[in-house]
Fold this protein.
Amino acid sequence: MKRSAYYVLAAVLLAGIALSGCGSGDSAAPRATGNAAPGLDAALAKAAAGGRVFIVFDGTPDPAIVKGAGAKVVYNYHLVPAIAATGPGAVISKIAAHPRVIRVEPDGKVQALDAELDNAWGVKRIGAGTVHDGGNKGTGVKVAIIDSGIDYNHSDLDANYVVGGYDFVNDDADPMDDYGHGTHVAGTVAAEDNAEGVVGVAPEASLYALKVLGADGSGLYSDVIAALQRCVDNKIQVTNNSYGSSGDPGETVKDAFDNAAAAGVLHVGSAGNSGNPPGRGDNVGYPARFASVIAVAATDSSDKRARFSSTGPDVELAAPGVNINSTLLGGGYGEKSGTSMACPHVAGTAALVIAAGITDVRYQLQVTADDLGDPGWDTKYGWGLVDADEAAGAPVNNPPTVTITSPAGGSTFESGATIDFAGTANDTEDGDLTASLVWTSSIEVGEIGTGGSFSATLSDGVHTITASVTDSGGETGSDSVTITVGTLATLSVTVTTDSPSYAHRETVPITVTVTGDQGGIEGASVHLVITTPKGGASAKDGTTDGDGIATLTHKVNAGRDGVGTYTVEATASKDGYDPGSASTTFEVTK
């Protein structure tokens, strides 16, 4: 059997991926594997009759192989090593058997899903207006609306629309919207701040229309891949993907999203509208389910999860998605609901974050989100409601990472020894801060050294050595080790009982006293081992009080442990001292 070539049955071609703005009737389709399966030609013929297939190569795709077999090349991709093609089942089967072809997958049909304040309440709720007032409107950030096109004649979109999009449905350079979904999404991302209608999250972002959905709201994944490829080629910074499917579209589609993300494109996708009122289950759709896509759930004006919003472990952020007022095809404004409407709130916020000069956009969106639902991340809201004001403000400043490499913790040095100190400090924002390290000791006064390496002589005793550094944003990082210099004093230990002998079932009070040069040692750890006449042993632990005393008890059980002499061994330990020990005995009679 040929290496991992597999085919999805034609049923998957008939399953739509729906724009996650509304309900979907999608269902996962079965997948058949192996190009030597009985009836394969018939299955491929049926698949080919329903649309296109992806022919995946082991390297650069070769259209001559496809054309030579009698199939038609629709797209010759370079974002993924694949060709989208059409042809009779027997032809596709012949191509699948070629040694350079590693996989054949059917293209998936996409279906638009429409679910149906200040005018744009969602934009206001996430704090975008505050960012605009500060002068950041996402100017020039390239956002691709992968959807049904954009009505570029709309008075609230025309100034931000950039010529250079494409209509993959009709194969021309005029991506005019003829369905309306893409126009509504585009308005939430970047409707102009022009005192009319609504305002978008990033009202000066550059909008690129990549039309993959036709007048009936349907399209193909092969067009989506072509759109992603165009994003990479044209250095698009953010894609808005307000569509989704419950069925996995396959490895080729996943690879296209992953490769575009690796090239620097940030993907934002609607989580889907397959949720249930209690918010149970894992029902996030594709492509939002891919790790390279930010999956966005929907909330209402009370910051509650919309009852239709999909849930599951892939939900990353939430955004307003109920009764969202935005631009309509042909002019004017209207409300729609769905995660399709939530998604562009996050895409627009990403544009503001990019315009603010913050590089790790996805992390910034996560850590600045307003927590909703269960504390921390959860399956309904992800990290929480996107917060444009915080996300596009000052970047999150991570503290430096400090590591002491010498001396090792627990090391012991002779009195007067010269000790070598070394360490490193690195900061996400400021880079290498090793030269700025400051070293201190818990015993010495002031600094004992600076920088990445130095040598010093320390006083006798147990030192906690700390290396620390503060970055340009005021965050401090540190590392510490404990070392001993010189000969340590040994703890003096005594252990006594209040009587030399005890009877069965009596309680024996055992007093341990720990002292040093200055008297009782507070906080010493005491460990007792009581050995019985029958050879058994029991252990007890305690800590000395301010007078250096620890009192423990032992309940006598002569029947179990026997009568005769019991031995009590007491050991005391504390940092800065060598351990001390002592013992005593008591008798047990019947």
